[in-house]
Amino acid sequence: MKSPTPAQFRAVHGDMGRWQAVDFEVYEHLVENQYIVGPKPPTEPADRNTARQDPNPPTGSRPAG
Asked: Has this prediction a pTM greater than 0.70?
């Protein structure tokens, strides 16, 4: 059996102001399950030097004066 979407759950259960705690728990899990969890991006090795970025990069305009 496929779980309902959060929108379907709200349509069946009506106004959220009348929900019980268990309704909120179920709804919360439905919302969380909507997001697909993919593999984590690869991390850089700790011993690798990473280039530091200039906190004030050039803007391409000339200074006034």
From this structure: no
